Amino acid sequence: MAAAGVAGTAALGSWAPWAQSRPGGPNAPIVFKQTLAAQHFSIRDSITRVDKAVMGYLGGPNFPEDPTDLGPLVPLPGGYQAVFQFLGECGYGGFEFYQFTQAAGNPGGANPGNTLIKQWLDSAGLKSVGTHTGGLGLLNTTTGGLSTNGQTQLAIADALGHRMLGTAGDPVSGNAANTLAGWQTACENYNKLGALLMENYGIKAYLHPEQNNWDFIRDAAHPELARKHRIDFFVENTDPRYVFLEPDTFHMYNARGRFPDPVDGSLWDPVPYMTKNWKRLVGWHVKDAVRAATPVAAPGNPFEQTKVRPGFPLAGGVDVIYSTEGHIGNGAQAAAQPGTSPRAYGYDPGATAPSAQPGPDPKVWGLRRMFTDVKANRAKGFAYHIVESDSGPGPATDPGRSLRHAKYSAKLLLGQK
């Protein structure tokens, strides 16, 4: 828990601020089954293959500490039913969808439908926590009601049980993203959609902001916006009662390094974004990464989600970063909480030239601090830790990588205290 406020909130019981990640009390695990979910995109290759049609390695009991302990070569789970069962056995309690099809050779065929998907979730002990099938396409801007797709997504939400509809799509795309008018219209429509979904259906509309949202509004007619990050404009101009946020730990830190201030080169500050908007957070995309092996100047990527793991015998030694292993997961040493120590790849060393703002970066908090110092309570604040890696699916020489990432990320997160 955060040092500040602990004594004052203890008397309020386990649902006081900060308690969402520790409902069992101050010594309980930070992440637990009810909050742990898997992001569909991270294991997308497993859903689109036929169950047991491909052989791969899911890791042994000493992996990843022993990178040679791959476990036996096994038929890999494929399709919703088998993958849900695997995730449930790994300790997950939820699943966040980004679409609803699968490999045609699995039970239920390519389009199994809501009833079967719900049965498979229930059988595996999972619940649907939300989807990335939302966004402004759900709103009919002419009538002010739901679009045809909005009605479809509402029906799916009712059938599967989730009460959140979000998107990773940029609120404004193309040339309009560099216009004030484009962002004003997008924010206005997000407010309308959010109010419509919340007031009528009890559903939260959320944005999962990715890279471009940290760029600037480069509108020549409005030079005062040349230093305004798009994400800040969006947050400031959407209604916190109706428009919610799902931070991605990789995209947030990677993008701030890609888009330094055009005047003084400073980096966007993630701390007030997390702490001041805590009531708007619906969940974290828990995505770990390490500093790029070859530093590049902005707007190149300062972080990467794979790394050569010494001793790892597959794919030329390249493996994905498991949650809590990387520099984002461990955070900067200056930001570390008392009594904690880093895992695997160690504390974040900071950027190296020519990357933006070289040197130690105490704004890289680490996963544990993000999960405990950002407020949450029973009614408001984040409810889920959603495991993901954009680099989850492995090459043909390592087809088990995405499920292995899900398995060991769950183990590492569930063991964090």
Describe the protein's architecture and organization.
The termini are close together. Helices cover 28% and strands 12% of the residues. It is globular and about 60 Å long. It is an alpha/beta fold and 417 residues long. Strands 5-4-1-14-9 form a 5-stranded parallel β-sheet, with helices on one face. Strands 6-7-8 form a 3-stranded parallel β-sheet, with helices on one face. Strands 2-3 form a two-stranded antiparallel sheet.
Keywords:
alpha/beta; 14 strands; 3-stranded parallel sheet; 417 residues; 28% helix
Produce a short descriptive summary.
With 417 residues, this protein is α/β, with parallel strands linked by helices. The chain contains twelve helices and 14 strands. Strand 6, helix 6 and strand 7 form a beta-alpha-beta unit.
Report strand %.
5-15%
Supply the helix-strand structural class: alpha/beta
> Could you give the order of strands across the largest sheet?
5-4-1-14-9
Low-confidence stretches: 1-20
How many helices? The count is 12
Q: What shape does the CA trace take?
A: globular
N/C terminus separation: 10 Å
Fraction of residues in helix = 25-40%
- Roughly what is the average pLDDT, rounded to an integer? 93
Please describe the biggest sheet, giving its number of strands, its sense, and whether it closes into a barrel.
5 strands, parallel
- SSE arrangement, N to C: HEHEEHEHEHEHEHEHHEEEEEHHEH
Q: Rg, please?
A: 21 Å
* Count of distinct strands: 14
